[in-house]
């Protein structure tokens, strides 16, 4: 049965119920995950009628689809987000894993402290934010540390430290602190961060005047500086809505397969910061924008009281799921805010296009120049390889891919050297080239127009030998050698005995330098990761009572030996290790 007939049969069986659908290519890879109020209608729409270029590209690659029926559209939304996060399909809008926003947290402990965290958890702590970047959160926390003397150390010391002497800690390590005092400070911090900083400023101003009247000019100056710091940190508002409600305001603009989303953070009724995201999108712009909004809040337990969105969107499902009031303002200052977010999104995307056009002209010319210098057709696809080891130990290699002069990071690959013993760069290069291109031939993957070897003549010849004499492939290969200062120095090509002349100020030379630096960076980072894990593994294996399972738990939870050494005993309880074994682990590591 042909692919077309198979899809036609499955379309006839689609139910008229809500759910999630997964579009797949000929290799079974998931291309796109979507949700639908009525699966029957939504999935059929892909295979009937005409589509724009972006959607047509997706449809042309669909060889199969699956679907999951849900009871409600809200359940479909939640499942869609989970599947997008799990499979990261190429055609979905994706928030990067590191796209989390910092919060200021007051911990729920006997002696609470202020922290900057990236995740809101239901752990009894009080969270304030989000802040658009770590700098804004750190600046605010620094101000709070000066105002409120909560403890600063992760674990209580045996005696008072500098913070106590500069009035920034109550020193619970040495002096008893009543719970009522903590409650008072926490209440004041909460009021401060929720818009009550003007009240604190007034109190500090009164204290400053009293100190000045008492001729305590140094203390009065400290208070004056503190008041100015509050103004600097807290008075960055551009628009005041005249209330104390926390809101997130979204605007977007889409063009040429790209979308820009702007989020304005309104805290205590005042616009304080914004966040900008620009990315490719492939589906309907309204659906893709709503997908971004739903992912924005998917792992966020701390929600604003109100979300403002542009008009023309079906927001019912997201509103039901979040249980937050979503408004589409039609007039007034809220409408101005949404319009301003949309206008800023348009300006940001148009600026990106101008930069892309300028960079593309330079990049395309660099690729063309490189082809001319090597006397080969313009190398649209370039694959670069590099080895990394320490005297043969933990030997690894890496491959990076450049398409039209730009890094294609999804196609990067890492290799652990399996067949070579000791420091043998030529043997390692042979193994990696063999593994890469045997698989490429077997799976009919696209072959590069040029291979770049970071390692000079010897490694380049090793690669050529495998390609030509073992695999019968005629792919141009060049080698890059570095000088004593580790800068790109010479370009070798094929079996030509002398280096290729290349202008060091040319765009082609700059492109080769970028490629060499990128593959070296990728190989080194993979080697460090591998070597670090191996070193940790060998140390942990020596500890009595730590088997393979606990070793993996320690590696995953702490990430480094230094982190384990500095951890309190109670931290080990989170991974099921008792206090006795935790103390033995700490004792062993701190003696080595």
SSE order and pairing:
Blueprint: H1 3-12, E1 19-24, E2 30-36, H2 39-45, H3 53-61, E3 64-69, H4 73-87, E4 103-106, E5 114-117, E6 126-128, H5 134-147, H6 162-165, H7 179-213, H8 217-234, E7 247-255, E8 258-267, E9 270-280, H9 285-296, E10 306-308, H10 316-322, E11 325-327, H11 332-374, E12 381-390, E13 393-403, E14 406-407, E15 413-416, H12 425-442, E16 450-454, H13 456-470, E17 477-482, E18 488-493, H14 507-541, H15 548-558, H16 561-565, H17 569-572, H18 579-591
Parallel strand pairs: 7-10, 10-11, 12-16, 16-17
Antiparallel strand pairs: 1-2, 1-3, 4-5, 4-6, 7-8, 8-9, 12-13, 13-14, 13-15, 17-18
Question: How would you sum up this structure in a few lines?
Answer:
The chain has 592 residues and is α+β, with helices and mostly antiparallel strands. Helix 13 links the parallel strand 16 (450-454) and strand 17.
Task: Give an overview in words.
- There is one protein chain.
- The protein is built from 18 helices and 18 strands.
- Strands 12, 13, 14, 15, 16, 17 and 18 form a 7-stranded mixed β-sheet that branches. Strands 9-8-7-10-11 form a 5-stranded mixed β-sheet. A 3-stranded antiparallel β-sheet has the order 2-1-3.
- The chain is globular, with a radius of gyration of 30 Å.
- 46% of the residues lie in helices and 19% in strands.
- The model has no long low-confidence stretch (mean pLDDT 83).
- The protein has helices spanning 3-12, 39-45, 53-61, 73-87, 134-147, 162-165, 179-213, 217-234, 285-296, 316-322, 332-374, 425-442, 456-470, 507-541, 548-558, 561-565, 569-572, 579-591, and strands spanning 19-24, 30-36, 64-69, 103-106, 114-117, 126-128, 247-255, 258-267, 270-280, 306-308, 325-327, 381-390, 393-403, 406-407, 413-416, 450-454, 477-482, 488-493.
- The longest helix has 43 residues, at 332-374.
- A hairpin with a 2-residue loop joins strand 13 and strand 14 (406-407).
- It starts with a helix and ends with a helix.
- Helix 5 (134-147) runs antiparallel to helix 8 (217-234) and helix 11 packs across helix 14.
- It is of the alpha+beta class.
């Amino acid at each position: 049965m042909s692919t077309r007939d198979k899809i036609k049969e499955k379309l006839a069986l689609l139910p008229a119920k809500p759910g999630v659908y997964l579009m797949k290519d000929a290799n079974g890879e998931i291309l796109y995950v979507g949700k639908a109020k009525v699966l029957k209608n939504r999935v059929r729409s892909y295979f009937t009628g005409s589509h724009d270029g972006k959607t047509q590209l997706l449809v042309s690659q669909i060889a199969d689809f699956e679907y999951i029926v849900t009871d409600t559209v809200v359940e479909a939304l939640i499942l869609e987000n989970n599947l997008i996060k799990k499979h990261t399909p190429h055609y979905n809008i994706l928030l990067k894993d590191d796209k989390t926003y910092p919060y200021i947290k007051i911990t729920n402990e006997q002696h609470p402290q202020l922290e900057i965290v990236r995740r809101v958890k239901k752990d009894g702590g009080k969270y304030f934010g989000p802040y658009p970047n770590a700098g804004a959160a750190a600046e605010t926390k620094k101000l709070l540390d000066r105002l409120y003397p909560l403890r600063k150390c992760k674990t209580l010391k045996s005696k008072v430290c500098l913070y106590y002497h500069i009035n920034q800690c109550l020193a619970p390590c040495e002096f008893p602190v009543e719970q009522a005092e903590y409650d008072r400070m926490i209440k004041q911090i909460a009021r401060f961060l929720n818009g009550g900083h003007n009240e604190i400023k007034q109190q500090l101003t009164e204290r400053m005047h009293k100190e000045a009247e008492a001729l305590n000019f140094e203390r009065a100056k400290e208070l004056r500086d503190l008041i100015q710091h509050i103004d600097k940190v807290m008075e960055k508002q551009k628009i005041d809505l005249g209330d104390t409600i926390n809101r997130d305001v979204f605007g977007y603009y889409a063009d040429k397969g790209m979308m820009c989303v702007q989020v304005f953070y309104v805290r205590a009724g005042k616009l304080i910061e914004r966040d900008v995201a620009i990315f490719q999108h492939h589906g309907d712009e309204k659906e893709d924008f709503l997908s971004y909004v739903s992912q924005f809040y998917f792992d966020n337990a701390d929600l604003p009281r109100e979300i403002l969105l542009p008009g023309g969107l079906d927001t019912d499902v997201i509103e039901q799921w979040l249980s937050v009031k979503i408004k589409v303002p039609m007039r007034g200052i809220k409408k101005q805010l949404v319009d301003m977010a949309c206008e800023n999104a348009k300006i940001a995307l148009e600026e990106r296009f101008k930069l892309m056009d300028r960079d593309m002209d330079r990049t395309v010319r660099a690729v063309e120049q490189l082809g001319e210098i090597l006397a080969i057709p313009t190398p649209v696809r370039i694959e670069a390889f590099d080895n990394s080891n320490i005297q043969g130990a933990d030997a690894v290699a890496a491959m990076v891919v450049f398409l039209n002069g730009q890094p294609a990071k999804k196609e990067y690959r890492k290799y652990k050297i399996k067949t070579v013993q000791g420091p043998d760069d030529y043997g390692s290069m042979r193994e990696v080239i063999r593994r890469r291109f045997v698989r490429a031939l077997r799976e009919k993957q696209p072959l590069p127009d040029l291979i770049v070897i970071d390692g000079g003549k010897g490694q380049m010849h090793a690669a050529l030998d495998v390609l030509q004499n073992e695999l019968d492939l005629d792919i141009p290969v060049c080698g890059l050698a570095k000088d004593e200062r580790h800068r790109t120095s010479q370009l070798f090509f094929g079996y030509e005995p002398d280096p290729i002349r290349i202008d060091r100020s040319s765009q082609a030379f700059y492109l080769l330098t970028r490629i060499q630096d990128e593959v070296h960076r990728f190989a080194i980072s993979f080697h460090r990761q591998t070597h670090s894990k191996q070193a940790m593994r060998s140390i942990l294996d020596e500890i009595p009572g730590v088997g393979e399972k606990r070793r993996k738990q320690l590696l995953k939870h702490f990430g480094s030996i230094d982190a384990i050494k500095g951890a309190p005993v109670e931290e080990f309880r989170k991974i099921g290790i008792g206090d006795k074994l935790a103390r033995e682990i700490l004792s062993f590591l701190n003696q080595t």
